[in-house]
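Worked example 3 (structure in, sequence out).
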């Protein structure tokens, strides 16, 4: 595949020109995002893992699985939970409570620890803990089953993802049903993946912690810079197929699923889709560019239609202000027919 504005991998150059209404100079940011050389270019917030990681890998030049693409499109039009929704939803925006609470830690944040829900692989979260502003605890939804959060802690050097989060403000501890940790010095793959360079990384079935959330801070910088997010997203898919198995970056699959595709299967918006002509809002265009430039892999089964999880808003906190990102901002703009399927395990 070849991106609408890029045909050269950012892993092999530090500088290039690209066509966006004319030739313009650009430089490669620290997270693998090409930034226009203008005075107005926004600084991209910290995003972990190196430019050579799967997390930052682009789909330019990827082969297309023609048979898989055909069966994917047919499946999306026929599955009873999906056929009424021809677009990916973005949860966590507005009044929707099914996103993921997010925080980018600072050294001035207090240290919290997980009191229950860790295992040997994630014991560091109960011992050393993580930096988190106290106000974040008040933003965790209480009316949904999952109550997930992602904390990116550059101070301690890891990202943690937890489910069923119940904070205790009195002693700054958090009880969770499951916890995950990925170390920023690694290549961002679960330690059980043969391609991983850090056996300490662990998440259920190998999900990449940071790929599970559309971060509003990175999206706002991308709007200012005219880019995508710069990283691969996880699709919370309507229903995968247990019999199709699993492929990298995942290391395990959910049982008793009779849908389509292996967990870890990567899909992307076709290279020939002219996104600026689709009438997308600024924020929706960033998401669409991301799906075209980096794609997404099938991870968790959603229990409903397919969706991307956004940073969770709350009555007192709206990270999406000014972005025009909403649950259905891709509706009538992007459809499943715009997607292609990549071969299993391709990077």
């Amino acid at each position: 595949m070849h991106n609408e504005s890029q045909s050269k991998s950012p892993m092999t150059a530090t500088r290039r020109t690209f066509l966006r209404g004319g030739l313009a100079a650009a430089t490669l940011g620290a997270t693998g995002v090409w930034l226009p050389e203008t005075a107005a270019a926004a600084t991209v917030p910290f995003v972990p893992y190196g430019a050579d990681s799967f997390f930052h890998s682009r789909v330019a030049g990827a082969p297309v699985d023609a048979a898989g693409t055909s069966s994917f499109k047919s499946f999306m039009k026929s599955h009873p939970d999906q056929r009424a929704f021809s677009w990916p939803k973005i949860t966590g925006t507005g009044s929707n409570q099914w996103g993921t609470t997010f925080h980018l830690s600072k050294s001035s944040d207090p240290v919290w620890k997980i009191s229950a829900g860790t295992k040997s692989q994630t014991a560091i979260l109960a011992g050393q803990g993580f930096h988190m502003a106290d106000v974040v605890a008040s933003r965790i939804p209480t009316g949904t089953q999952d109550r997930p959060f992602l904390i990116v802690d550059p101070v301690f050097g890891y990202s943690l993802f937890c489910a069923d989060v119940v904070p205790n403000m009195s002693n700054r501890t958090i009880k969770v049903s499951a916890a995950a940790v990925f170390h920023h010095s690694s290549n961002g793959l679960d330690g059980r993946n043969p391609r991983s360079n850090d056996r300490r990384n662990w998440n259920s079935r190998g999900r990449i912690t940071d790929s599970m959330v559309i971060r509003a801070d990175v999206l706002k910088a991308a709007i200012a810079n005219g880019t995508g997010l710069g990283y691969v997203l996880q699709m919370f898919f309507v229903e995968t197929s247990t019999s199709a198995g699993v492929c990298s970056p995942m290391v395990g699959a959910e049982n008793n699923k009779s849908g389509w595709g292996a967990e870890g299967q990567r899909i992307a918006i076709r290279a020939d889709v002219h996104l600026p002509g689709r009438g997308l809002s600024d924020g929706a265009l960033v998401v669409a560019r991301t799906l075209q430039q980096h794609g997404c892999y099938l991870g968790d089964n959603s229990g409903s239609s397919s969706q991307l999880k956004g940073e969770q808003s709350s009555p007192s906190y709206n990270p999406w202000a000014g972005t025009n990102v909403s649950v259905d901002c891709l509706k009538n703009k992007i459809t499943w027919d715009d997607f292609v399927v990549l071969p299993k395990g391709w990077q």
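Notes: Confidence is low (pLDDT under 50) at residues 1-39. The helical segments are 66-78, 124-127, 134-137, 216-225, 282-293.
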